[in-house]
Specification:
The chain has helices at about 35-60, 75, 130-140, 150-155, 225-230, 260-280, 340-365, and strands at about 15-20, 25-30, 35, 80-85, 90-95, 110-115, 125, 160-190, 195-220, 240, 250-255, 285-315, 320-325, 330-335. By secondary structure, the protein is of the alpha+beta class. Strands 4, 5, 6, 7, 8, 9, 10, 11, 12, 13 and 14 form an 11-stranded mixed beta sheet that branches. A 3-stranded antiparallel beta sheet has the order 1-2-3.
């Protein structure tokens, strides 16, 4: 984030500038350089503008109070929650679900109870991928990993894969971004006696307005944020108005991160994207880096949605491994174990394969 204040520093040496009594100039007490007041005002006008924008950006808020709505009495009566006695994860199920495996730890214990205290989602993306799709995608995910233990796939409990609706906050925003870049051009001059490298430094400023729709931030502490971002994107054109009927036969994770608490992650994603867009316009330089940036939200609407995810937790050598698949697009992410013996032998096998080739090349050169 940009600074909301401006430090007046000498352009020559970086030391603090001060207006000394009895003088008509601003003086650097370190190097002695004197500057006209008008020159200093012009020099720091841009930084002052950036500080104002940064202060405005810090004060801007997302309209999180508009996300979601209250459940009706009948809708709330049809929902139940249970807490896993093994890992403590809190999940939502329909009134017909009496027992299941916890998708986080595989524990089959379940204690149903009345469900309340959760906002009704605005939208839902229905599942498109089936369990058979998830099993096939997981097996495909295993392929090409030469260091994967042989008995890992053989003993994999693919039947433990379960579908879950995961809570997401979707942030819409129109923003104004102003960024200051330091750009460099490097020229190398060869002379009979020396090589001279000349670096030219430019101050490039960019400003623009942009619109962002449905910036996703998952609302569950139990779901790994890195995994959730890795299975993106979802096709939000397939969002439909929420109905509890979509929960039938599925589990649903109760949000435990509010829209307000999720806003900083949305802000960061907006800021990163906006800076990248403006940076792409600073062309024909050898290096470009961000010096200062201010991103101001003009509009900040938030929606609450449930998105489909297939989840599998399996164990190998008493260590859990979790895989997640986008229930709409089929994209799979997860962590895999590796065989230490294979890892040790693999470089040696590569050497054995390469040695005849190297020998042939050397022989060809010698003879």
């Amino acid at each position: 984030m940009a600074d909301s204040s401006v430090s007046y520093k000498c352009p020559n040496c970086g030391a603090p500038l001060s207006f000394l009594p009895g003088k008509k100039t601003v003086t650097c007490e370190y190097c002695g350089t004197e500057f006209e007041v008008a020159a200093i005002e012009e020099l720091f006008r841009g930084k002052q503008e950036m500080a104002v924008r940064a202060a405005e950006a810090q004060e801007a808020r997302w309209a999180t109070e508009d996300a979601g709505s209250e459940w009706s009495h009948d809708e709330a009566a049809a929902l139940h929650a249970f807490t896993c006695s093994s890992c403590g994860a809190e999940l939502v199920c329909d009134e017909n679900t009496m027992a299941t495996e916890c998708v986080y730890c595989g524990n089959p214990t379940m204690i149903p109870k009345r469900f309340d205290g959760m906002l009704k989602p605005d939208f839902v993306i229905p599942f498109k991928k089936t369990k058979a799709d998830a099993v096939a995608a997981l097996k495909e995910f295993y392929k090409g990993h030469s260091l994967l233990p042989s008995n890992f796939t053989a003993n994999n409990r693919v039947e433990a894969i379960q579908p879950m609706y995961v809570p997401f906050w979707l942030f819409d925003s129109k923003i104004t971004a102003q960024v200051e870049f330091r750009a460099e051009k490097v020229a190398v001059l060869n002379t009979p006696k020396e090589i001279v490298t000349q670096t030219s430094i430019y101050n490039c400023r960019r400003k623009g307005t942009m619109s962002f729709e449905k910036i996703p931030v998952d609302g569950s502490k139990k779901m790994d944020d890195a995994y959730m971002e890795s299975i993106e994107p979802f096709n939000y054109s397939e969002l439909v108005p929420f109905s509890a009927a979509y929960f039938t036969g599925y589990l649903a994770d109760k949000y435990d991160v509010t829209a307000e608490a999720s806003a900083p992650r949305a802000d960061k994603r907006v800021e990163t994207s906006a800076i990248d867009v403006l940076k792409s316009s600073v062309k024909n330089f050898d290096a470009v880096q961000v010096e200062n940036a201010a991103v101001i939200k003009d509009v900040g609407k938030v929606s609450y949605a449930m998105v489909p995810v297939w989840i599998l937790t399996t164990r190998y050598n008493d260590k859990p491994y979790t895989f997640m698949m986008n229930g709409q697009t089929g994209k799979v992410v997860g962590s895999l174990p590796y065989d230490t013996t294979k890892a040790f032998l693999y470089p040696a096998l590569c050497s054995l394969v390469l040695m005849p080739i190297i020998y042939f090349l050397i022989s060809s050169l010698l003879y």
